[in-house]
Amino acid sequence: MKRTRVVEALDAKMIGEKIKLCGWVRTRRDSKGGFSFFELNDGSSMKSVQVLAPAELSNYESELLKASIGSSIEVHGEVVESPGKGQATEVKATEIRVLGYADPATFPLQKKGTSFEYLRTIAHLRPRTNTFGAVARVRNEICKSIHNFFQSRGFIYVHSPIITASDCEGAGQMFHVTTLDLLKIPTKNGEGAQEVDYEQDFFGKATSLTVSGQLEAEVYATALSDVYTFGPTFRAENSNTSRHLAEFWMVEPEMAFCDLEGNMDCAEAFLKTIFTDVMNNCAEDMAFFNERIDKTVLETLTGIVNSKFERLSYTEAVDVLKKSGATFEFPVEWGIDLQSEHERYLTEQVYKKPVILYDYPKDIKAFYMRMNEDGKTVRAMDVLVPKVGEIIGGSQREERLEKLEQRMIDCGLPPEEYWWYLDLRRFGTVPHAGFGLGLERTVQFVTGMGNIRDVIPFPRVPKSAEF
Ligand code: 4AD
Ligand code: MG
What we know:
Blueprint: E1 3-4, H1 6-9, E2 18-31, E3 35-41, E4 49-54, E5 72-81, E6 89-100, H2 116-120, H3 130-152, E7 156-157, E8 163-164, E9 176-177, E10 187-189, E11 194-196, E12 207-209, H4 214-224, E13 226-234, E14 247-256, H5 260-281, H6 283-292, H7 297-305, E15 310-313, H8 314-323, H9 340-350, E16 355-361, E17 377-385, E18 389-396, H10 401-410, H11 419-426, E19 432-438, H12 439-447
Parallel strand pairs: 1-2, 4-6, 7-13, 15-16
Antiparallel strand pairs: 2-3, 2-5, 3-4, 5-6, 8-12, 9-12, 10-11, 13-14, 14-19, 16-17, 17-18, 18-19
Helix pairs in contact: 3-5, 3-6, 3-12, 5-7
Bound molecules: 4-amino-1,4-dioxobutan-2-aminium adenosine-5'-monophosphate and magnesium ion (MG).
4-amino-1,4-dioxobutan-2-aminium adenosine-5'-monophosphate (4AD) binds next to strand 14, strand 18, strand 19 and helix 12.
């Protein structure tokens, strides 16, 4: 018999159907009348279905009364109208098999509220809680929405490599990839110092985990026009914050024949589509987040979908912050990299909606961004949202060969190592632009979850790679 999912069994249309259900017991209540109720969940929805187990079942005493929270069971029975409030149906069992017991003395997820910190230490069991089930479903919906958005607009999904020899952001925050024996590292004599001899390494050169798929996306955009990458990226920044991971997922569209305005328009439409899809397709999970995690998430998302993002230059933003009279831990001066307190002040206090800042000082941005006429700023843009801060970073790319080479030299990057990237400017160069959206920051923003470690199944952060 085909298994019915709990989400289907909850539907009144199923009343009268004989079904098979499988899942994990969330609670069992034994009534004085000589029967028991199981709340059964299989992750297909937030809600569990109530299963009525009559005492007449042959294994009622011997097995079912031992099936406590966390146990897995298979139920055969009929969907009936539920007399209880808050549910249309329940399942009257004719047979229940226990697939696996969970010893109540040692099963770590008992009914009582458990802190997110504790749940991180049992990341292999936390998807069985309401919150982490809901996070997984919302994260999945966001990924679906991301693909739908680009696919419906004719973008080609490109797979950029995980192992790379180039540092896209030029920030030197890369994890090395090597097969060299760390106790016997081969060296050679470089300029006045010993250097690792990477010629003896697996790839014959120094390699790392990628921080971004952008450079490779540019290769494909300058052939296929509109492309996107979507995959894991890695940063060895030692930031122990609620918004940083060492391994996170990023979606990076790259568009040929596109300038910064087109880039901003795309980013704004993209975020609005994601938020709309989540509210439409994960209504139950979103109601849960709105009630239990952050009472403002639905109102905030609805407001965003129906309003225009604020757009202002970095220079204007610095003026706004300086004139605000607010005191910040990090004082504001033109040229500083804006801190999360500044970003939050702009989105939460001043504009109360997402803000796109553009034209940043060149010294705080990556080498590939297009230089403005002023020689001081580049065509960068960041999309900031309340609470989370920066959710998107992007730019129009420098498509002029000489200017790009000069910028690389100024940033201390050897142009010869990026010869293939520079070739894109040598052969049929075009204006192009793109951005990167952090998937986890998006899940955080949508759900209201306070810590980024709770919106990815297995977080990787400094000093922690368990599971
Ligand atoms: O601003 P970033 O560094 O931009 C890039 O990597 C560009 N190559 C993107 C592009 O233009 N194609 O990162 C983009 C986004 C950030 O806005 C943030 O949402 C997320 O990636 N992000 C992180 N998320 C979690 N943990 C980290 N350590 C992150 N670093 C960046
Ligand atoms: Mg950034």
